Amino acid sequence: MHTEGHRSEHIGWLRAAVLGANDGLISTSSLVIGVASAQSSRAAILIAGVAGLASGALSMAAGEYVSVSSQADTEEADIARERGELATEPEAERAELAGIYVKRGLTPELAGQVADQLMAGDALAAHARDELGINEITRARPIQAALASAASFAVGAALPVILAALLPGAFLQWGIVGSTLVLLLVLGSVAARVGGASRGRGALRVAFWGVVAMGVTALIGRLFGAVM
User: Fold this and answer.
1) Closest Cα to residue 128, out of 139, 144, 120?
2) Cα separations (Å) of 104 from 97, 100, 110, 126?
3) Which pTM value belongs to this model?
4) Which of 31, 123, 151, 161 has a beta carbon 3.0–4.6 Å from 119's, enabling a disulfide?
5) Helix, coil or strand: residue 177
6) What ranges do the domains of the chain cover?
């Protein structure tokens, strides 16, 4: 048997996981660096980091669940509409399906035969796939997206929290910056590799925004630390 693996099969959880890990690493590292730049105590830095990890993971889970649930609701509404139209106007739906295949290059005769056979089998699946663009690979899965996003955010956010607890104060900020940049480069490269894109470009674009975020929060921390 000839089997093929396609990258699009992973798109549901991969997008949420990459977004979560990237967000967890950048936001928590930036938060810790910002608080540390204000000359705060280690206890305050750790509290900020742990709070950022917990709140960020829950926020990512909630955001992904709500967002993907909206997509799932839209898909279900479209499928329900197709189900009703198939029950009340089967000939019109058959003609619509045949028209889709004609636009894709089949002759009208062959398109009609294909439409007839598909309508005789699982008509709803055929219309969902070819008319609406909905299939099992790309279907919205809210719980999967929420869990992947929350777990990956927590994993990404764990590094700066652990470093904040272990590194000496004099090396805290630069240690977090360096470690975060290395992991961002790795994360961007891996995500690009799985998605079939350029590894170098994927790594650099993630690292760039990490540098911007950490730089801005460090500046804010220094300004507020000086004022206070």
Assistant:
1) 139
2) 11, 6, 12, 15
3) 0.70
4) 123
5) helix
6) 9-227
